[in-house]
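ARCHIVE CARD
CATEGORY: sequence design from structure
SOURCE FIELD: tokenized fold
FIELD CONTENT:
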């Protein structure tokens, strides 16, 4: 998933954003390593309830992320089809860039 996110961002011509994704992924992996060294992995292995809570929170995050992506796609298509003076330019419609570092961090956080 991480590699796909980096390649997609770079293939769209957003090289600076791709580096932000890389930095975010590495930050997420570092967070996972720190939490592991603090014993969170042992807690999740020992506590079935904590594991289930984390698992359902991860599922909810994936659903939320998918819904946001779908809503953004439809909003962008609607804004690009209207083309009024105050609506986005065609370049804005094609780019669709977002802040990529946090997205990379969240894809790197679930585990290496």
């Amino acid at each position: 998933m991480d590699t796909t996110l980096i390649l997609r961002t770079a293939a769209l011509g957003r090289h600076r954003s791709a580096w932000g994704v890389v930095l975010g992924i590495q930050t997420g992996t570092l967070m996972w390593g720190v939490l592991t060294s603090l014993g969170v992995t042992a807690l999740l292995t020992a506590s079935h309830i904590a594991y289930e809570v984390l698992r359902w929170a991860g599922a909810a995050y994936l659903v939320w992320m998918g819904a946001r992506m779908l809503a953004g796609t439809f909003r962008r298509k609607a804004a690009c089809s209207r083309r009024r003076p105050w609506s986005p330019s065609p370049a804005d419609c094609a780019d669709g860039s977002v802040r990529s570092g946090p997205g990379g961090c969240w894809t790197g956080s679930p585990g290496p």
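CARD ANNOTATION: Residues 48-82 form the longest helix (35 residues). The mean pLDDT is 76.
SHELF: design records, drawer C
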